[in-house]
Amino acid sequence: MGDGPLTEIMMDKVADLTQLTARNDGAFPMLEVIHIIDGRTGVRGHGGPMPTYGDIFTAEASATDGMSGDYSAVLAARGRILSVAMYLESLQQ
């Protein structure tokens, strides 16, 4: 909801992610959420409050799962990103 215990130490205002559907005329913006989490929009990748997880998840899959240089790491990252997006969809009020 953007009002957790760490918000007071954050520089940027934390978004209420439970209201994405309400702010989008009752439809959860799944593709937009996926692109923001992944970093493909270019909007948040440079200095925004939302970290981009596409590269983080891909690097993590490469390092921990031995998928380096393999498209499997990208697929694993996309699966994780989809899981985060679906979780956010489940939080909508």
How many beta-strand segments?
0
Question: Which of globular, elongated, flat, extended, rod-shaped describes the shape?
Answer: globular
Compute the CA-based radius of gyration: 15 Å
Instruction: Label the structural class.
Output: mainly alpha
How can the largest sheet be summarized?
none
Proportion of residues in helical segments = 40-55%
* Terminal Cα span: 10 Å
β-sheet strand percentage: under 5%
Unreliable segments (pLDDT under 50, ≥5 consecutive)?
none
Q: How many individual helices?
A: 3
**Multimerization status:** single chain
Report the mean per-residue pLDDT as an integer: 81
Q: What is the string of SSEs from the N terminus onward?
A: HHH
What is the count of structural domains?
1
Plain-language structure description:
This protein has 93 residues and is mainly α. The chain has one domain. The chain has helices at residues 30-38, 54-65, 71-90. The longest helix is centred in the C-terminal third of the chain and has 20 residues, at 71-90. The mean pLDDT is 81.
Summarize the structure.
The chain is mostly helical and 93 residues long. The protein has one domain (13-90). 44% of the residues lie in helices and 0% in strands.
